[in-house]
Amino acid sequence: MMKKLILSALALLLISGAAWSQSLEDNEYFQKMLELRRQSEQSFEEGDYAEAKRLAVEAQSYSEQSKRWIESQLAAYRARSALTRLKDRLAQVSKWNAQTNFPDEYSEGTALYNQSFGEFHDDGKYVASLATSNKALGILSVIEYIPVKSELPAYYVVRLLPGNTDCLWNIAGYDFIYDDPWSWRTIYNANKNIMPERDNPDLIHPGMILSIPPLDGELRSGTWEDGVIK
User: Fold this and answer.
1) CA–CA separation, 53 vs 7, rounded Å?
2) Mean pLDDT of all residues in 218-226
3) Pairing mode, if any, of strands 209-211 and 228-229?
């Protein structure tokens, strides 16, 4: 009877050990279980069945601890991944001006992020943190990009002005273009392919449609023609 109990315990340990991948053997509980199992098998071979049983039971206890440790690590990984996705989503919708266009959703999403962060880092409540992050991601999923109509044109139609024909210097200096005549080269570089003479920035014709590249942070749309953005 004693031998059957010991053999059953050892078989259970072998099955438990086979269920985990090689990479999980790094944790201290699994390593301790393996050592106790080795000692149990040695005691069994030496005929010390009582000691073999005791060691097998202790090994089983460490096997359960190893399982709990692995589950905790997996829970932490899932919670950390969700928290990262939530942080990235908040950064994205912030660029979309969600604070103004979706104030309630953005505010609640931010509050839930702080809650999830605290659950993860302060309390180690990984399951709760995961649930909180997923809830926030669901709320933020309704936020979408809403284009803002720009007062700065993306294109400019060259005019025929009495006594002062348009030129890149003057165009760049208009306040609705760059308000800086020295930026004429930006316009020139963006429109070389349509210039009457590619290497001559001084030659442009009335009616030409020039592309006006946006500078850092600018939002441009429409075509400026005779004082109106169309």
Assistant:
1) 9
2) 82
3) unpaired
Q: What is the SS3 assignment for 74? A: helix
Question: What mean pLDDT, rounded, does the chain reach?
Answer: 84
Q: What whole-number distance in Å separates Cα of residue 125 and Cα of residue 108?
A: 20
**CA-based nearest residue to 1, from 67, 9, 24:** 9
Work out the end-to-end distance of the chain between its first and last CA atoms, rounded to an integer number of angstroms. Answer: 94
| Residue 150 lies inside a defined structural domain of this protein | no
Q: Which pair of structure tokens corresponds to residue 99?
A: 């604070």
pLDDT tens for each residue of 147-196:
766 678 889 999 888 776 788 999 999 988 999 999 999 999 999 998 98
DSSP bridge partners of 157: 209
Instruction: Report yes or no on whether pTM surpasses 0.70.
Output: no
Question: Does residue 2 carry a pLDDT above 70?
Answer: no
How many Cα atoms are found within 13 Å in the side-chain-facing hemisphere of 109?
A: 27
Whether 187 contacts 121, CB under 8 Å: no
Same domain, 100 and 171: no
Distance CA(84)–CA(135), nearest Å, equals 14
Nearest to 128 by CA among 136, 120, 139: 120
Question: Both 127 and 163 in a single domain?
Answer: no
Residue 210 belongs to a domain: yes
CA pair distance 84, 45, nearest whole angstrom:
52
| Helix, strand or coil, per DSSP, at residue 65 | helix
